[in-house]
Design a protein that fits this description.
There is one protein chain. The chain is an alpha/beta fold. The chain has two domains: 111 residues, Urease, subunit C, domain 1; 272 residues, Metal-dependent hydrolases (TIM Barrel, Alpha-Beta Barrel), CATH 3.20.20.140. 37% of the residues lie in helices and 22% in strands. It contains 14 helices and 17 strands. Strands 1, 2, 3, 4, 5, 14, 15, 16 and 17 form a nine-stranded mixed β-sheet that branches. An eight-stranded parallel β-sheet has the order 6-7-8-9-10-11-12-13. The mean pLDDT is 95. It binds zinc ion.
Length: 447
């Protein structure tokens, strides 16, 4: 048995309705698992006791969609719309990354997420261009110590290339990884651009091939800006037997209202990335409509080349956008705006925690402070310039705190951030190397 960790005297937002909030309570962690959450827990022999006075404890956040390898291109898309992003980041940077670059970027990106209170990421990796790249992405995620799903992509097929043969090699490698990664911190999915980017038949053929693996497939759908957007796509996928609980649709802004209901009935997962979607013109984030229809919804950050800082900025942008939409509609109808906002801070935190875990099929593992789940949790300082005085704790975390107040992060029961600093002893070297390689790649891309 490992050393027990007793977090003592925190204000606890368990995000588990059976436990609720505790104004002051203790959390016992051992061997990576949450053992108990209660108002007072006696310290077991040999326990590490952490004084959590003035801290809010909540589950680690779940980022439902990020292209983690783009941590190498952080900030390069600040002024990009979709076309400029695709031309620059995808075609001039991502496609030139070596396996070592991917390992470095995934490691650095994983650390960024941990620093911002994210303990689970879904890494939609367009950079798994070869088995070596995929192994490197996994090595980077392992080094960061973050819970992750690596979504392994089918590489682009060159003109006249044999799609079946190329994808066959990818599927064989993914299958070997699946066996090795069935349990544990990093799991395997697959991902594809999807039918909104390419002609329909080849896209469906790719999806059918990947479906053989029996793991979820993630595709980008429904954004108004996609080049081959197909009205009624979800109905069309349903007719092909591809609309099921092993599908995650990302963005998914512009589907018909009935399609969200159909997707909910089929168990489809959806991820919204509010800031990028609204900046690039994908459409209004679908998360509220999809959740109301009963879908399993997560929130993601999407492209580090444009935005960062973990999930809190995304939740704020999404909440403001939805309240703005509701208020404008009320005013246009000659009514007053709602006397109290119809979406609460707690509902937004649910999207980032238990809802997000459900949105990745990981809610039995993470997403709430529930005994028996893995110990993915945060301690947020509520006595700092940005967060004092303590009032409504969910509102304080959602609307006031930043990564700077996220003092402690445990992933799978291990400290990954402590006393406000990343625990990884190699972190400084990782970011120094990232700077050097980013400069080299930017120089090469400009030639
Ligand atoms: Zn994306």
């Amino acid at each position: 048995m490992g050393q027990p960790i007793l977090l003592r005297g925190a204000l606890i937002l368990s995000m588990d309705p059976a436990i609720g909030d505790l104004p002051q309570g203790d959390i016992l962690v051992q061997d990576g698992t949450i053992r108990a959450v209660a108002a007072s827990i006696p310290a077991p022999d040999g326990a590490l006791v952490v004084d959590c006075a003035g801290r809010i404890a909540l589950p680690g956040m779940v980022n439902g969609h990020i292209h983690l390898a783009q941590s190498m291109q952080r900030g390069l898309s600040t002024e990009h719309a979709f076309g400029g992003y695709f031309q620059t980041i995808v075609l001039r940077h991502s496609n030139r990354m070596t396996p070592a670059d991917v390992q470095l970027a995934d490691h650095a990106g994983g650390l960024e997420q941990i620093a911002a209170g994210v303990t689970t990421v879904m890494d939609w990796s367009r950079e798994t261009m070869s088995p070596d790249h995929a192994d490197a992405a996994l090595a980077g995620l392992d080094a960061a110590g973050i819970r992750a799903i690596l979504a392994y992509t089918a590489p682009p097929i060159p003109q006249g290339g044999d799609a079946a043969a190329i994808h066959g090699r990818m599927i064989a490698h993914a299958r070997s990884l699946l066996a090795a990664r069935a349990e544990g911190l990093v799991r395997i999915w697959t991902c594809l651009q999807g039918p909104d980017f390419t002609p329909l038949e080849p896209a469906l053929a790719d999806m059918r091939r990947l479906a053989e693996l029996g793991v979820p497939i993630a595709i980008h759908t429904g954004a108004s800006i996609y080049p081959n957007r197909k009205p009624g796509l979800l109905r069309l996928l349903d007719a092909q037997g591809l609309l099921n609980e092993r599908l995650q649709i990302v963005h998914a802004n512009g589907h018909e209202p009935a399609e969200y209901k159909l997707a909910a009935e089929r168990g489809v997962m959806l991820c919204s990335t509010p800031e990028v979607e609204m900046r690039m013109g994908h459409g209004h984030p679908a998360m509220f409509q999809a959740a109301a229809a009963g879908m399993k919804v997560s929130v993601g950050t999407d492209i580090p080349s444009m935005v960062g800082g973990g999930l809190l900025p995304q939740l704020r942008v999404a909440l403001a956008a939805e309240l703005h939409r509701i208020n404008l509609a009320a005013l246009a109808a000659g009514q007053g705006v709602p006397a109290t906002p119809p979406i609460t801070a707690r509902q937004m935190l649910e999207f980032a925690t238990i809802g997000g875990a459900r949105g990745l099929g990981l809610d039995r593992v993470t997403g709430s402070l529930t005994p028996g789940k893995r110990a993915d949790l945060l301690l947020v300082r509520a006595d700092q310039p940005l967060t004092a005085p303590r009032s409504d704790p969910a509102g304080l975390v959602l609307l006031q705190a930043s990564a700077g107040e996220i003092e402690t992060v445990l992933v799978d029961g291990r400290f990954r951030k402590r006393d406000g600093r990343l625990v990884d002893p190699g972190a400084d070297a990782v970011f120094a190397r990232l700077q050097t390689r980013a400069e080299e790649m930017a120089a090469a891309a400009s030639r």
